[in-house]
Design brief:
The protein is an alpha/beta fold and 284 residues long. The chain folds into 2 domains: 108 residues; 152 residues, no CATH class. 51% of the residues lie in helices and 6% in strands. It has a 4-stranded parallel sheet, sandwiched between helices. Helix 4 links the parallel strand 3 and strand 4. This is DUF4435 domain-containing protein.
């Protein structure tokens, strides 16, 4: 099946080659571009938005078939490391260290910078657990449900999900059955059995997966939005909408944080194999 959008974007890159002789870095979306543009050498590397993970990989495939040089794609790992069955591999395709780029931001010192600006120091000190660990513990329940939906082709809908329906605002605890019911109703999959889904999720959990691969960054930011209204802050809901928090986390992320990531090391390896094409600033 022809992917017209991917073909169109691949053609745009081909046409750009006449004017730009550097590396083309393909990323999934605009928010990814905003991060990577601050990390790359803009004179040597141009960041291109593919509009989806699928598109990014398809564009890469198209250009590789043409033996196009100086092309690199970076996409979210999603659940691929847990499933160990990545369908397409290439020396020109790299994955985020964690589930997605947002998870890398949350793992980094940008998270502490963000909390100092946004959270209540008094409430954070009184909160019984580490905030980052709490987000992971709660977020895994949603992550495992997402993964189960993919494995079983349930087509559950998580977009525009109301987290307030299943999250305790005081301590961020979560009732798994209420979560499953909420997602089931939101997806209009009324025939699904909550108890059966919970049992299958519990089977998945037995393997003690890396939660940084299980959790979706957007889910953790939704949890953080709720937490900042009561548990660790006193913000109004309109002040902590997810788009606002995602932008603030991006702005808190410094180039120096990227130096310690595995992705940074992989990009350096790619550069060494693909000279004269470069991606990164000499000092990010």
């Amino acid at each position: 099946m022809i992917n017209r959008d991917a073909n169109r974007r691949a053609n745009q890159i081909r046409l750009r080659r006449d004017k730009f002789l550097g590396t083309f870095l393909i990323v999934e979306g605009t928010s990814d571009k905003l991060i990577y543009e601050r990390l790359v050498n803009s004179k040597k590397c141009e960041v291109v938005v593919a509009n989806s993970k699928f598109n990014a990989i398809e564009i890469l495939k198209i250009l590789e078939q043409d033996n196009f040089k100086g092309i690199l794609a970076i996409v979210d790992a999603d659940f691929s490391r847990l499933e160990e069955n990545q369908e397409f591999t290439s020396d020109n395709l790299l994955l985020t260290d964690d589930h997605d780029l947002e998870m890398m931001l949350i793992k980094s010192p940008a998270f502490e910078k963000f909390l100092r600006e946004r959270g209540s120091e008094e409430k954070i000190n009184k909160f019984p657990k580490d905030i980052r660990e709490t987000l992971l513990e709660v977020g895994q329940e949603i992550g495992y449900l997402r993964w189960h939906s993919l494995l079983e082709n349930l087509s559950l809908k998580f977009e525009e999900l109301n987290f307030n329906k299943f999250i305790n605002k005081k301590n961020l605890s979560l009732d798994v059955l209420i979560l499953i019911t909420t997602v089931k109703n939101h997806s209009q999959k009324l025939s699904l059995q909550e108890q059966e889904i919970q049992e299958k999720i519990n089977q998945l959990k037995k393997n003690n997966h890396d939660l940084w691969q299980v959790c979706c960054g957007h889910d953790l930011i939704c949890l953080l939005s709720i937490a900042l209204c009561k548990a660790i802050g006193s913000c109004k809901h309109t002040e902590v909408e997810t788009e606002i928090l995602e932008r603030e986390l991006r702005l808190a992320y410094e180039g120096s944080f990227f130096l310690s990531t595995h992705l940074y090391s992989l990009i350096k390896v790619w550069e060494n194999k693909n000279l004269p094409y470069l991606v990164l600033l000499e000092t990010v």
